[in-house]
């Protein structure tokens, strides 16, 4: 190819230069920021407001072919090259903290506890301990939720004057982030870099996680994300996840769908409520998060469960947001299912002592007993003839102490009772579950029969009770049974004992019901062994004859 005389530039290079020159305007305009003119705007005011020093209003006029700088039509769209805009350092603000999180403002600074409202500049490092979370907000309104066990560096925080655009670049050393990036028309930049990947967006909702070494992942919940690593880039859209290893990002994969949550419509009145959802094919685990509201700025719970159910923590009364997603075999986390619940569980009912659910009560005017609660100033108690409490037989709304008696005698049968706590502000908490019990007659005192001799032993017998009942037998030298020689419980209505020594003895027996209830003692029997028994014992070691008087 010939060269042009005196220039030494190949014709091919000149042609390329011409093509480049033709592209300069559209290529520059592709990186422009666009402003819509308002009625009171002037080109001089706009230049002072948005252009950096050294860029004149005449350049803005000529770039937009403004014919009359004294009159800018409202609605006119002015294009401003990003390189002309003012750039200034920006701040990130700690919106919310749950648990222990720490901030180091620069490499030489000491780490301090993070707190809501704290402003951070470029170069700051944040860490969250186990069970902690922290939310940051950036100059353009974008937010990032740091989950537990994460470390994040703020590599770059810049704002383009008053345009609303920002340049935010984060470095996740290890852990997990949930990013909600504000969409701004223009060239705003937001990226999260890990040791082996970088995820860049302009307005989207996505997660980034890394183990700090050989593996990272990006999960796109809305919009699209460019994922790069090892000189390779892939674009992942909504519902896609990308795994990144030493070889760079893999192909985008479909994330697990959101599970169907069994969200309670009525207020939750029990501590440790069991939240359930539909099992997802391909899900080995599930992540469950609880927050004070749908913004999920502070996580009150962040737990990975191995089955489609989890017990919620003990939450103060109020409204909460819950989100659940599946985790597949490659540890990619899926799309969120979100619901809101209302907790109204405090003060909790006290611990019930008696009667226990399903127990038996003897007598026609039973007494109810519970352990006093530190949350309660008083209690509300109800007794009913049905599980739905349509037939209330007894009720007291401001009980103090730890027990109450039925207001009147009741016929034998099945009843239900329940109790609730009232706090010092007068708030009545939820009632306990209805607790059934059976009111039954006391087992009768057994009637003992005459003793039977059997060699050196003596047998006692009494009237048998109901199947499953036991019997307690006592023998003592004193009528008050303060010191018993014999105290034995047997399953059958009989007992064999060695023949006792001579003198006066007292005996009694009672029935132990199947629920452990001890019935009344039989009348105390007084037995005197005659003196002949003493003589027989001295003569040959014979046993005394014991007579049981009924």
Task: Give keywords.
single chain; 550 residues; mainly beta; Membrane-bound Lytic Murein Transglycosylase D, Chain A; Jelly Rolls; five-stranded mixed β-sheet; 4 helices; elongated; disordered N terminus
Helix content: under 10%
Q: What is the number of strand segments? A: 44
Q: Could you say what the CATH topology of the largest domain is called?
A: Jelly Rolls
Work out the count of structural domains.
6
Q: List low-pLDDT spans.
A: 1-30, 540-550
The profile of the biggest β sheet is:
19 strands, mixed
Mean pLDDT across every amino acid position: 87
User: How does CATH name the architecture of the largest domain?
Assistant: Sandwich
Strand composition percent? 35-45%
Structural shape: elongated
By secondary-structure content and strand pairing, the structural class works out as mainly beta
| Rg over CA atoms | 42 Å
* CATH class label of the largest domain: Mainly Beta
- Please tally the helical runs, counting DSSP H or I stretches of 4 or more residues: 4
Distance between the termini: 138 Å
Written description of the protein model:
Mean pLDDT is about 85; it is low at about 1-30 and about 540-550. A hairpin with a 5-residue loop joins strand 42 and strand 43. The radius of gyration is 42 Å and the shape is elongated. By secondary structure, it is mostly beta strands. The protein folds into 6 domains: about 1-30, no CATH class; about 30-85, LysM domain (Membrane-bound Lytic Murein Transglycosylase D, Chain A); about 90-255, Sandwich (Jelly Rolls); about 275-340, Immunoglobulin-like; about 350-440, Immunoglobulin-like (Sandwich), CATH 2.60.40; about 450-540, Immunoglobulins (Immunoglobulin-like, Sandwich), CATH 2.60.40.10.
